[in-house]
Amino acid sequence: MTDPLLSVQNLSKSYGALRVTQDVSLDVHEGRIHAIIGPNGAGKTTLISQLSGQLRPDGGRVLYGGRDITRLDMAGRVRLGLARSFQLTTLLPGFSALENVALAVQAREGSSFRFLRPAAAEQALNDQAMACLADVGLSDRAHRLAGSLSHGEKRQLELAVALATQPRLLLLDEPLAGTGHEEAAHLVDLFARLKDRVTMVLIEHDMNAVFALADTVSVLVYGRIVASGSPSDVRADPQVRAAYLGEEAAPC
Amino acid sequence: MTDLTQTLARPRARLAGRLKLALCLFAVLAVVPPLAHAAGEPFLIVVATRMMVFAIAALSLDLILGYGAMVSFGHAAYLGLGAYAVAILSRAGIDDLVLQLLAAMAASALFAAVTGAISLRTRGVYFIMITLAFGQMAFFFFVSFSTLGGDDGVALPARSTVLGLPLLEGAQGMFYATLALLVAVFAGLYRLTLSRFGRVLTGTRESALRMQAIGFRPFPYQLTAYVIAGCLCSVAGVLLANQAIYVSPAYMSWHRSGEMIVMLVLGGVGSLTGAMAGALVTIALEEGLARFSDHWRLGFGLVLVAVALFSPGGLSGLLRRLGLVRDAT
Ligand SMILES: Nc1ncnc2c1ncn2[C@@H]1O[C@H](COP(=O)(O)OP(=O)(O)OP(=O)(O)O)[C@@H](O)[C@H]1O
Ligand SMILES: [Mg+2]
């Protein structure tokens, strides 16, 4: 098998006595969707934050494309193609949806030390931003302020911004939470289409989506990976059923 | 709510609204000298000049405080650096305004680059404290500068010349030179806030985390804005020295820095037209209230309390709510 795109080795992180990440190791291969599921407070967001560079782990390493990026900051990782979407939306509320996305395009295209030309008039930025908005189904909201969008639309915009960085690996923290039924279906469809271009780490509570999309599923409980494997294996794992799926087993 | 956000999002309408009010202000200012003469109150020209000088200073502070969310409590240092550049150069026999402006901006850029690089390592109230500390450092440096009068300051032999011509000699020349520089600073900052750089700066104000998550490291942009603001404020300092024909460390005291923040709060933080209006109104009130009573500060305080209570967005917020303008410039 080829080398993994992302390799997490013995990662650990504690908040005081609380061990949020305990000796987590996992490999994510190019072109795959690797889902991470687990109960509330299991440490999923904390794990993603360490992968994206927002948080420093206490121990362990993160390798990306064979390179050790454990000490690289978030902006540096984004430039290498490692983008994330946030569980709690982190948008620029006073910017329009289009401007939010165009800024992400601007980050990777050309210098931002340009002082006189109005950025809003840069057709190249706007065109690429509009394409990303169309991808997530937000074209008709382009000129709305991000702060005035509905909760579900903000989730879609989060995703459009992440896509605008042209990621090779996308870390998705509950992208479907708070979206309506139709929007969720649209996004699941989008992830399936994106799979050829973008590798994904997907955290999601919607089990139907997880089992429809994921190639690999890892189960995180109390900061520890208790099971990892193909969706059907994980679903059958008695430990997993007891620890996590028990309460949601019905639909599966 | 929906109506407002839709209007806000229409870029063209937004630009037009932004500029119109500022242009009106400039037009009104341009006719102050003839009107003051006609009214037999030439003293008003001097007052208006001071108002515009502080409008330049407030505009420069708005770039970092309003657009960059960097609350500097030491911005008056650049007013002082500009003023002392005039004093030092004229003592060395260099009277040309352009050379003095260049020297003031170079000195300010250096001071801002060094102190900004250190201050920007901190956040929030620590940033306020450390910029205050650097401002006081500059203040005490000039207080102890005895060859330039120390605490008492020093009178200048004459106003600066422009290409050898004594254009600033009369109150009117001084007034129009200040107005020209005010318009230039406003126009420059207006363009800048809409540029790529301006977007990064305002984006960082809204969410530094988001900016990092799309690949920006805010520090170089914030430092650049800090340096630009320092340079522009020193222009106001050069004009202040010329207007008063006198230079003193009092220009850079922390009271001045605080007063500049008050101007922004009064006019509306993060709005260029608001910053300008806030400065004009503050100085006008100072001069006006000082005529009526020695206790004018009390009156000014009451005005500020009223603004804080009834119009959190300052003057520009008030106009917006009255429907006179549609956005924050
Ligand atoms: N900054 C922090 N300081 C202290 N404890 C924290 C901090 N951030 C998270 N925690 C704790 O760490 C644990 C894991 O949090 P995390 O947000 O990673 O969980 P999660 O799996 O993403 O949960 P959810 O499904 O609710 O999103 C929780 O118990 C949380 O209270
Ligand atoms: Mg979470």
UniProtKB/TrEMBL annotation, chain A:
<protein>
    <submittedName>
        <fullName>ABC transporter ATP-binding protein</fullName>
    </submittedName>
</protein>
<dbReference type="InterPro" id="IPR003593">
    <property type="entry name" value="AAA+_ATPase"/>
</dbReference>
<dbReference type="InterPro" id="IPR027417">
    <property type="entry name" value="P-loop_NTPase"/>
</dbReference>
<dbReference type="InterPro" id="IPR032823">
    <property type="entry name" value="BCA_ABC_TP_C"/>
</dbReference>
<keyword id="KW-0067">ATP-binding</keyword>
<dbReference type="InterPro" id="IPR003439">
    <property type="entry name" value="ABC_transporter-like_ATP-bd"/>
</dbReference>
<dbReference type="InterPro" id="IPR051120">
    <property type="entry name" value="ABC_AA/LPS_Transport"/>
</dbReference>
<feature type="domain" description="ABC transporter">
    <location>
        <begin position="6"/>
        <end position="247"/>
    </location>
</feature>
<keyword id="KW-0813">Transport</keyword>
<dbReference type="Pfam" id="PF12399">
    <property type="entry name" value="BCA_ABC_TP_C"/>
</dbReference>
<dbReference type="Pfam" id="PF00005">
    <property type="entry name" value="ABC_tran"/>
</dbReference>
<dbReference type="GO" id="GO:0005524">
    <property type="term" value="F:ATP binding"/>
</dbReference>
<keyword id="KW-0547">Nucleotide-binding</keyword>
Automatic annotation (TrEMBL), chain B:
<dbReference type="InterPro" id="IPR001851">
    <property type="entry name" value="ABC_transp_permease"/>
</dbReference>
<feature type="transmembrane region" description="Helical">
    <location>
        <begin position="173"/>
        <end position="192"/>
    </location>
</feature>
<keyword id="KW-0472">Membrane</keyword>
<feature type="transmembrane region" description="Helical">
    <location>
        <begin position="261"/>
        <end position="285"/>
    </location>
</feature>
<keyword id="KW-1133">Transmembrane helix</keyword>
<feature type="transmembrane region" description="Helical">
    <location>
        <begin position="125"/>
        <end position="145"/>
    </location>
</feature>
<feature type="transmembrane region" description="Helical">
    <location>
        <begin position="48"/>
        <end position="69"/>
    </location>
</feature>
<dbReference type="Pfam" id="PF02653">
    <property type="entry name" value="BPD_transp_2"/>
</dbReference>
<protein>
    <submittedName>
        <fullName>Branched-chain amino acid ABC transporter permease</fullName>
    </submittedName>
</protein>
<feature type="transmembrane region" description="Helical">
    <location>
        <begin position="297"/>
        <end position="319"/>
    </location>
</feature>
<feature type="transmembrane region" description="Helical">
    <location>
        <begin position="76"/>
        <end position="94"/>
    </location>
</feature>
<dbReference type="InterPro" id="IPR043428">
    <property type="entry name" value="LivM-like"/>
</dbReference>
<keyword id="KW-1003">Cell membrane</keyword>
<keyword id="KW-0812">Transmembrane</keyword>
<feature type="transmembrane region" description="Helical">
    <location>
        <begin position="219"/>
        <end position="241"/>
    </location>
</feature>
<feature type="transmembrane region" description="Helical">
    <location>
        <begin position="100"/>
        <end position="118"/>
    </location>
</feature>
